[in-house]
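[SOLVED] Need 3D model of a two-part complex

Original post:
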Amino acid sequence: MTATTSSINPLTAAGIPAAVLQALAAAGLTAACLQCRKCTNGCPVAARADFPPHQIARMVQLGQVEELLSSRVIWECTSCQTCATRCPRKVDIATLNDALRRLSRQMGKVEGETTVPVFNDIFLRTICRHGRMYEMGLMGSFKLRTRRFLADLGKFPMMLWKGKLVLVPPMVRGYWERRRLFRFTRGAGGEVR
Amino acid sequence: MSGYMFYPGCSLEGTARDFLLSTKAVAKAMGMELPEIPDWICCGSTPAHQSDPLLALALSAQNLAAAEGRTVAVCCAACYSRLKVANHEIASDPAVRQQVAKAIGRDYDGKTPVLHLLEILARDVGVKEIASRVKRPLRGLKVACYYGCLLSRPPEVTNFDDAENPTLMDQVVRAAGAEALDWPHKTECCGASYSITDVSIVLSLTRNLLAMAKAAGADCIATACPLCQLNLDLRQKDIEQKYGENYGLPVFYFTQLLGLALGLSAGELGLRSLVVDPEPLLAARGLTSDETVTHEVLR
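Solution:
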């Protein structure tokens, strides 16, 4: 989502690296936030979050980005976009969180408990390889990487019986083009693979 | 009713196979053709936009470009959101369009129309047309229509319906003869893909949905998103156990309910794939056996 408000940025003086500033500006976060808390009132994970959305906006305004990069909330945000939809000033916290996630990874600040980055990497690797999601492969790799061998294991027979699991991986034509697409975009953006 | 190019999305080939079955069966019954976009690939979903904005746009753009300008029909709310965001970003920023063109190896203008099946049914086909084809009205069935978070957000991008109180699914469900309940959690989030990475989020959010649907007097829930359906249906037992509650709410895809009303069989609609068994409810409302249709037709 592009910035819809003016890009006055209060962070320049706060000693934040240029790359960080750029990413935050791209996420549409500006001085616009009024702390009305409409975002937090609608946020499905605000109650469990270490920093609720209105506080994320305020912390970025004050230059306290480091703390956010190692926060839990950026990995608990469900990307439901309730915050961005209801904000009277069009501050897009959902997209800001995407930027914070990338920075958190780039700067090695990812909060210890979360498995979301591992999941995301396996997901993207799977679709690069097969073209489409291969749920069995994804689950297998995820269990191996996170050592959560027992989680939901009991559901497998039932899901197979219900026809919800496909054992054979999909294979869409155009593997080399896909690989090029992934290489090109990952080169321009993040650094994962 | 034709001219659409269908983008099923990955879930419909896996955990949401019954969404695919029922969509195809309903389309056929409505005389609608849904040829798939050739060699369509994953939209990248949440992992792509969390990891790399350009990758997310390029994956969606490759599919949209392959539709060669024909309107793309989508079932999955997450795919729908990603394709719409890609269109919005590419059409509104020439620099983004150029970057995406480099990534996918062809220029794409961001102008291929994208519609959710609910928009097609409620607006293009129309509720009158649907109602005229109903053979087995779902009389007495109280349905909580659950849209999930992504169909209507952000509203300036998806342009789907009222962002806080969408009614397209309510209209389709009413055309099928059922009662669409007024309830406040139509667009609350179910926790989506945290079902795998942090299930505690999903259990608490999805519990709120089940509790509110029950409190509103629902017999069942209708969904338009594979992740919503999976969380509400597959996780329902876990939620009942964790919180010591009892819901017993069947969770349908809206296409399955519409298909029942159109006289299609449980097999054609993949009802067997539902985890919370819908048979007792359907039997109680006289909607189970395929003989019901025959009776009505004979009369």
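Edit: Chain B touches chain A through 65 residues (CB under 8 Å).
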